[in-house]
Amino acid sequence: MKWVFGMLTVLPLASLAQTPQATETTPGGKLFGGSQHFRTFSIGVNAGVLMPSVATGGSNDFTKWQLNYGYGANVKWQLLHFLALRADFMGGKIKGDNSRELGNGAAPNRRYESFETTLKWSGSLNAVFNVATINWLHKRSAAQLYLSVGGGLAGYNPEVTTPGGITTEYKPSGSIKEFYVPVGAGIKFKLSDVVNLDLGYTMHYLDGDNLDGYNYNPPTKDKFSYAHVGLEFALGDRTKPQLQWHNAPAVMYDEMVAQRDQMKLELDAQKENNAKLAASVEKLQADSDGDGVSDLFDKCPNTPKTDKVDGAGCPLPKADTAKPGPVQVIITEDDRRLVRDAIANLEFATGKSDIKPSSFASLNRVADLLKRKNLSLKLAGHTDNVGNDANNMRLSKDRAESVKAYLVSQGANPSRIEATGYGETQPIATNKTAAGRQKNRRVEFTIF
Length: 448
Hints:
Elements: H1 2-16, E1 41-51, E2 64-66, E3 68-80, E4 83-97, E5 114-130, E6 143-161, E7 167-169, E8 176-190, E9 195-206, E10 223-234, H2 248-285, H3 333-345, H4 360-373, E11 377-382, H5 389-409, E12 417-421, H6 434-440, E13 442-447
Parallel strand pairs: 11-12
Antiparallel strand pairs: 1-3, 1-10, 2-4, 3-4, 4-5, 5-6, 6-7, 6-8, 8-9, 9-10, 11-13
Helix pairs in contact: 3-4, 4-5
């Protein structure tokens, strides 16, 4: 019995000292992915020793118990990473005799010299609790402790031998069938993704006093135990990990690291895009000679500031003072409809001032109108109240400037176009609804 206690004492220490790198490549499975991502069924075989005593103590009807062989098999269904249902089957022999002298020279019985019980069969259903699956020290588990408890039925046939050497069957008419409660503990090692090594010890509490072939008066409850070494084989898709080895804290940590890295990549990409956009806007707004035409479109650089220029930045012919003043231009309803159409079709890239190509056609018609009638245009950019106030003000200004730059690139006179940004300060609808915010994100055109 001492070696059993030694095994149960040393093995937990060995489990804590295990190095996880040799047994599992990844923690496996998703944190909230469900059991379909794991293997949950397994079968096992084992062999060991049976003895008519248990570690928790209690007397039997013979003074000395003996070790004898036992064997078993099981089928297990892992419900959760820490809980499983296991059906156990076991057989073997249990022996004991009265060779050990007690202090007073007496024994529970002297009618028989020894007994031998053949455990023909036993079956039980057990709940198995993994008490060391969640490993806060290592990302991969190499060993786990477990406890089990359940209930079952055993069929056995005792034979007793008298001091004179006469052996008789305790129940000649057949086997004894009794209910029992198995309570066990053990340690399991993960040898591979398929095979686990199982070392266990189970105490069996019988609902009767017939196991050793002697019914003591007053009746007591016979007990026996089984210490075993076994192999467990996981069933199912080998690409899936075993649920019983699932380490939820490790999976949670890995998922958080992956999300953090992905967010960092996205943030770096956004910073790079913002830098490119700022450089483009700065290049677009550069006007070295101050004539109102960006250097990017100015075909006549270094024009004196006093000169009036056309959309290409080239000086306009000097006005003839002898000629009559300019003819008044009438803005028709068709002109206003053309501008309204341009407003309705104006679209920008999300969160940016880049004009989408689908808006070019209507803007081209506005540019042609401005050139044809020499009209002036005021552009007013607006946003909703989502985001930082300063960023919204800057975005509204950039979008108005982008429209101006495009119209100038189509030949419109930059000196007749004014671009202003108002940010979120002048809403035309409520910002509490998506539809209202959509209306507030706009660029207004005013021709005169």
